[in-house]
Amino acid sequence: MSFFRSKQMKLYSLVIPRESAWVVMDQLGRLGQLHMIDYDPLLPMMNRPFANYVKRCDESLFKLNGLDALLKQFKKKLIYCEDTQKLLDYFRDIQNSRQKPGHTLFDELEQEIEKKKNNIQEMSNNLQNLLDRVDSITEQKLVLEKAKEILGKSMFSQSTPHNVNDYQQLKFGQLIGVIDKEDETRFKRIMFRITKGNAWVNIVDLLPEKQHLQIKTSIDLNRASQPRCLYVVVYPGMNDQSTLKQKLLKVCDSFSKNRIEYPNSQETMDNKLRELSIQINEAQHLIQMTKKQLEVTLDELVKEKNGCNCSYFEQLRLYVLKEKYLYVNLNYLTMQGSIFTGNFWLPEGLETLVEDKLRNAMQNSIERFPTGQIQEIKPKQGELAPTYFNLNEVTMPFQEIVNTYGVPRYQEVNPGLFTVITFPFLFGVMFADIAHGFLLFLCGLYVIFWKQQLKKQTDSMFNAMIPFRYLLTLMGLFAFYNGLIYNDYLSISLNLFGSCYYPKNDEWEREQNCVYPFGIDPVWLASGSSLNFMNSYKMKLSVILGVTHMLFGILMKGVNTLYFRNYLDFFCEFIPQLLFMACTFGWMDFLIIMKWLTVYPNGKDPSIIETMINQVLKPMDEAVTPIFLNNASLQLSITQLLTIIAVVSIPWMLFPKPLILGSGHKKHKVQINDPQYQKLISEKQGSELEIDPQQFRKELQNAASNRSLESSEQEHDSGEIWVHQMIETIEFVLGGISNTASYLRLWALSLAHGQLAEVFYDMCIAGKLDMGGIVGGLMSGYFYIVFALLTFGVLMMMDVMECFLHALRLHWVEFQSKFYKADGYLFIGFSYNKMLSENNHN
Length: 842
Description:
Largest sheet: 5 strands, antiparallel
Radius of gyration: 41 Å
Number of strands: 13
Shape: extended
Distance between the termini: 33 Å
Helix content: 55-70%
């Protein structure tokens, strides 16, 4: 019954010599069953003994993340580890075969990661520089070609003027370069202001695909390119010292440093273009060589090695994560001299496994240090053990629903066990429809049977449903079942077993002694009073289910109090709460069922609401139309007795517990100081190291004294007790009314679902069935598509989420509040396998 209550836990103290701390923790991490306790949660990690090792691991992970980004950039696909246990076995074999201390393997891998990171980073930087160089040269060549087209050959003929006296007037200077596209308008405006309109400015776009087309076809580095423009400025005069040219140079340089000198002859232009083409070819050749060398190095990282069925990069990353995890848990221990001491929780029955791990920890090591010792200790007064359940793929999503509200207290009844059935059932009551429930059921089955294929489709909508596939299947199954109960198929009633009614004189006549085998007779849903009938039926059914659900929660409170031997809560809370709920709302449920089973003459059915009101306002008057047919006196006697019990239960809940607690201030003090470390002492003395036995014994005694436990004193403040009990009583009494009314959402959501389905059917399908001809067929097909889209979007998506959230609220507030403390904390085992599985990218 490890799912009904959490596993039994025992608290142990752990003492490890410093020399064997890594080996011992490595073995315990492989066992994966210890919940390590931080000796000082407020102490920063940087002030702990192994903070430097954790920092080194973080630095190595940072370098590996950089390499991972490059692998993605070059579209290299990593092979992720599917079997982490196999990888852990490989790590163990490597450590055993090295004939060196196990912790030194990380030192070697750290150096290897640093070397690979520097090598790959250098090649990546060289490749980036080469690409930037090709971009610059290609842009320069394109600028010269564009400028030549714009200026023409006339700019080269200015060296031979027609008249010597007009030499200066016939000369024109030019400036060419590249600016950003967004600066085009501002550049033109400033040029016009400086030259006062005496300069000709032309700007042409340089298309990025023309600049980088040849490069991008060979390599993809996700390099963002800013739109660029070529500018050509022609101004009068060629004197380099002229004021106008100096101003223009300042403006051009302020916009961009990429200003290009225009050749002064055709021959120089041709030579320049030829030289740029040669440089581009040489740079592209170097790019291909560097890229090939870089890809070979990256391929080494993504290849499978050592038979681990995962990339070598993943082996490095997971090993660094494992080392960091080990040192983080080592920091939970406190160091005293040459030993580490700490506490841990262990599930009952696993002591032998831990002792075997400690005994055999140094078996495959070249060193022969003592491995440590564990000793069971008693928890401090009020110290709760962690909560641990054995979960599987079926129970996990239901336990997550419970844990989202709060983790169960150690050893209290786990609501997750009942949630496996009650949650999908209450969802099905609200989402009841044969067709919709069956579609949801098929969706769950699809995810169950095609799980492996869906895992590979990371962008699929069904991929996110994999952890909740069994929850989805049960929700669809119960929605289908309740749809059969309501006889509701897309708002249409199905005549599955034949009706108990037959038409007679335009009315429906019921056959004698005929009972419809299962669900609602289809004639009711086809009659004019179907809405009133179904509303009454669903409302009463919701109240019955709600009160039953809450009564079950109160019973679980009684189970908890008996298990923890809290007899005060059993007699002063559980019994009066159970009596109050049973004598009020439980009695109302009984009246509903009694009325269903009784045939009243002349159609004079009694009112249950009136009966419940008169039970309080007219306790001495017999009912005019009693629920108990022809037996009003018996009904009056029962209602009077139940009313007295319900009224007495309220002060019973309020007064006895505070009075008893207030009169019993007791102090208990327990001290436990009996650790046995003789085995560890003998192992330490028997080792080959030269250590002073007296000094080691003294350190052990100091550690043992610090592990002694002293319970804290508990004192009860009578004022706080009275306030607390008063709040509990008022909350329960008023909550009984509000929580019962809250379960009417089962009726309201079911009604809304049915009415929406009916509206969609009537508007899209029913009115189009009598249309004939080609137009009628086309219209019917069109409206069927509309009907399918509305059903999927509104009912199968929005309404599923709505019913899910309401079922969640009924469990968290109405049900769990009756018994669930939810103040526990989860058992977090020191487990390599679990940690690596959670950090695996598969």
